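User: New here, please read:
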Amino acid sequence: MPGFGDPAARILVVGLAPAAHGGNRTGRIFTGDESGNWLYGALHGAGMANQATSRDRDDGLRLYGVWVTAVVRCAPPANRPTAAELAACRHWLVDELRLLHRLAVVVALGRIAHAGFLAAETARGQAVPAPRPAFAHGAEHRLPSGLVLLDCYHPSQQNTFTGRLTRPMLDAVLARARTLAAVSRERSGC
């Protein structure tokens, strides 16, 4: 499943994989499931989407300044991709990173997305600090490439139903991403 959004994006949101009953069914990442409702609702609230929900890929959803993708491109069994699946799909994320020339901020939704993004950075020849930055909700990592990696718990029902991730927590990460993207834009003169 391909990524989706604004080709001039300054913010990249990286998730795990299409949900079996969400994106895998609808043909668009984070579409047709509760995780997508959380994500697109927060993006809408932050002024980065024209609507708060996404039911199918023809529902008119448009993203502003944001590209949404995943580290795995098909629905993995039990929502747990194997190392082989992560490696087999990595080139898709690498290609997106090469095409999204204006990126300033990457929001990793979960530990697997965080690790998968860092692996893609390495695969595209970008230095990654050693030791590798550790995942922690709200953590902010400045990378040698100039990108800022922000960590956020994944908006899965497992996290949202238990309160591990609340709407204010997700909103705060996206607000920080917007601020960092705007500051980066001012510094670069774009």
User: Anything to note?
Assistant: Residues 167-188 form the longest helix (22 residues).
